[in-house]
Design the sequence.
């Protein structure tokens, strides 16, 4: 409701600004004797509106006050020195200039409210999202939720649970060689490689997209995990000989670390990942 109201105020302020511009154009066209003077004042009015747009309404109104005093002094000087009268032209700009500033401030403030709300929604969506938007793989948020469930099952039914952490070797260098539009595709291909190497009741997660790191939760012990590791590396070698080298012009290598869940040593899902990542140092 608040978002709709802000959007409505922003739209109305923009429409009012356009109407005021039209009124200024008509007024200038109807006063050919003061054409140059009116054009100069209109430019000043737009300048004050721009200052308000990029700063604050306080700065805009202060500058408008300075303009009113300056313009009033100029008109007063002309009246005294030339014996003229204060006409409609003077009152028009004394009203129109601050009015343009106020309308721009309303438009700007409402637009910024919408931008802030949009940023908050994006952050909230990113926080709640459990699937990577480009690869459709479960992410680290999903891992955190599932790991608590998996470890609970492992403890309750005495089923061994092992976490594999899979990382592409030299990814920071490789990503410079692969076109930007193919990076997500490369990550997806490696993900499919890992997915095809595990059973249906095991789970695959994209833990870190920027560093090309996956996590696999396996209901097996370390010996069973070694079989999965060998299977993944064998499939990778086959793909390097056929698809990867031809598609991405590079051969991909993987580092895989495995750690079996122990309730006494693993405090939380992130500690589980950390311990598995330490095992990557031994896979060269």
Sequence:
């Amino acid at each position: 409701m608040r978002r709709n109201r802000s959007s409505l105020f922003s739209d109305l302020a923009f429409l009012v600004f356009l109407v005021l511009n039209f009124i200024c154009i008509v007024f200038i066209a109807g006063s050919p004797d003061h054409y140059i003077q009116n054009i100069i004042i209109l430019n000043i009015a737009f300048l004050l509106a721009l200052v308000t747009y990029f700063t604050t309404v306080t700065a805009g109104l202060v500058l408008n006050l300075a303009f009113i005093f300056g313009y009033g002094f100029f008109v007063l000087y002309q009246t005294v020195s030339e014996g003229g009268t204060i006409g409609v032209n003077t009152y028009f700009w004394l009203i129109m200039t601050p009015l343009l500033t106020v309308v721009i401030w309303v438009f700007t403030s409402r637009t910024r409210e919408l931008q802030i709300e949009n940023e908050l929604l994006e952050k909230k969506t990113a926080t709640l999202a459990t699937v990577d938007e480009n690869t459709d793989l479960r992410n680290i948020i999903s891992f955190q939720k599932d790991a608590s469930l998996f470890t609970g099952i492992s403890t309750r039914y005495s089923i061994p649970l092992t976490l594999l952490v899979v990382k592409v070797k030299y990814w920071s260098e490789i990503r410079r060689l692969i076109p930007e539009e193919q990076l997500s595709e490369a990550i997806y291909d490696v993900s499919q490689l890992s997915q095809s190497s595990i059973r249906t009741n095991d789970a695959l997660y994209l833990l870190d997209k920027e560093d090309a790191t996956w996590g696999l939760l396996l209901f097996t012990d370390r010996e069973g995990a070694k079989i999965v590791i060998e299977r993944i590396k064998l499939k990778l070698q086959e793909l390097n000989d056929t698809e990867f080298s031809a598609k991405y012009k590079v051969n991909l290598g993987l580092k895989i670390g495995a750690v079996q869940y122990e309730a006494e040593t693993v405090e939380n899902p992130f500690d589980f990942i950390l311990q598995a990542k330490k095992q990557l140092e031994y896979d060269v």
Remarks:
- Strands lie at 162-168, 203-208, 213-218, 254-260.
- Residues 140-282 form a domain with the Alpha-Beta Plaits fold (CATH 3.30.70.270).
- The chain has two domains: 2-128, 140-282.
- The chain has nine helices and four strands.
